[in-house]
Model the fold of this input.
Amino acid sequence: MSKLVTVFGATGNQGASVIKHILTDAAVSKEFRIRGITRDVSKLAAQTLAKQGVEMKSADMNSRFSLADVIRGSHTVFLAASEYDIEVGVQYMIFSSLLHVTKTTSGRLTHVPHFNGKADIEEYIRESGLPATYYPPGYPMSNFIQMLRKEKDGFYTLAYPVEKDAKFPLIDIAEDTDEYSQCTGAIMKNHDRLLGARIYGAADYYTPERILAGLEEVTGEKTRPLQVSNEVYKSFLPDFMAEGMLENHLFIESPGYYNAASLNESHAI
Done:
């Protein structure tokens, strides 16, 4: 009988990408059947997955009984971690982690809770003894679209509070299966030798100039990078997220989104 892989966030970018790869990879789909977890199984995206053979279930992330029910019988769980995984017999987890910004910067940056929270969960999983591999996704390419502005001289500027040599580890989660879902498929195939490893989910490191060079090549538009002050950058954003987004980018500048880690070993799997 095939093993059960449970994918949380099944209709979101990451989860849907993983499911797509499992369904299209002959070797992985032969070994695993899929249970997709989403908030509302009545939505079109969930129904579409169900028609492709995915067992769709809804779950309340705040309910012990709901979580235990949807992960029961799973060999592998992707994305979500809870105290019930070991209790119900989960054998392996692929967790979409991130670095702890505050700890990595020795307290210099303290307003990036979505990174810190993911890192805290990774630490919990490691301490629990549950076999796992950690897969921190890179910086989404779609983020740049929001920051492009057309100036009066016709140039498009990309405004960020970072130096021109800052390195963004880019990934297109929604579109590029080579960079994301195929990597998670490779992790599933090789999980025995990747236990405890951190596999970085990015195509390559890109400076702002390299990003804009690619944009010019595709669109024919003229572009230039624009380094702005911290306060100017925050003025572009709603108050509730401005400080966090600023520190997120200061972290990318130094010490780096992946703390200057090489992508070579991750690409080699």
About this structure: The first strand starts at residue 3 and ends at 8. Residues 139-171+203-260 form a domain with the UDP-galactose 4-epimerase; domain 1 fold (CATH 3.90.25.10).
